[in-house]
Amino acid sequence: MESFSPSRRWLRVEVLVVLALSLGRSAVYSLLALTEALAAGPLKGQSTALNPSLQENPWLDLLRQLLSIGFTVAPVVLVVLLLAATAGSLAQTLADLGLDLVRPAKDLLHGVLIAAGIGIPGLAVYYLGRLLGATLEVVPASLDTHWWTVPVLVLHALKNGVLEEVIVVGYLVQRLERLGWSPRAIVLASAVLRGAYHTYQGIGPGLANLVMGLVFGTWYLRTRRTLPLIIAHTLLDVVAFVGYALLKGVLGL
Q1: Domain that residue 157 falls in
Q2: Which of 117, 201, 224, 239 could be cross-linked to 205 through a Cys-Cys bond (beta carbons 3.0 to 4.6 Å apart)?
């Protein structure tokens, strides 16, 4: 594959289009949702549900869940192809993203450690936000209970990890570097975007995810590995989604 050297104008338009098709669009709608929630009254008395059922019929619901996951990760394939066009090969692109499997054990260990380091403070921020009235009640899994509920929730968690870390960290960092942005500005832009598309949960989660974005962006700049970040993100969401789904019947949540 011959490499392609895009102009700065091309890169700016490309980044805007990619974000408009994926998490940039999510950020706009999330900020709009926060504005509407603030206008409706105190956030403490409101809630938002993640991973809802999409159909009453369980088989149609399963189909819609899988289609939603598949279409949501399509932009990841797009950015990999765009990066491959400038890198000259798919193998080089995966290496640049830190998605190759040259050090699986180390990536797994780092992913678990990052998840532990982010997860516990994240829970503290959530409960503090609820106490201060700056965070909506977040229902991590509102799917009806079926035989496929847990596997689908795991897929949703993996989808979130792949989508966010490849686009908001790997892709965005590489493109902003080519545009001549400083490392500090790149990390900040990535973090602000991450925080923005989580504001539908309230101000607290938005700020917590901004901090998470600062950590993840700095990690990638230093290591050039997104795989540990995907592992960490997936683990965090699996614990939240599956844990809630398994406990809601027991605890009457």
Answers
A1: 8-251
A2: 201
Among candidates 108, 211, 230, 115, which has minimal Cα distance to 169? 230
How many CB atoms are located within 10 Å of the residue 89 CB? 13
CA-CA distance, 120 to 140, in Å (whole number)? 16
Tokens 């990841």, located at residue: 76
- With tokens 């970040």, the residue in question is 229
Residue 2 lies in a domain: no
C-alpha Rg value of the chain to the nearest Å: 19
How many angstroms separate the CA atoms of 39 and 35, rounded?
A: 6
Residue 152 in domain? yes
What total of structural domains would you count in the chain?
Answer: 1
Q: Tell me: the pLDDT tens digits for 161-174?
A: 999 999 999 999 99
Considering the domain boundaries, does residue 207 fall inside one?
Answer: yes
Q: CB of 231 within 8 A of CB of 161?
A: yes
Residue 3 lies in a domain: no
Residue tagged 């602000």 (tokens): 192
Residue 165 and residue 213: Cα distance in Å, rounded?
A: 10
* Helix H or strand E segment including 47: strand 47-49
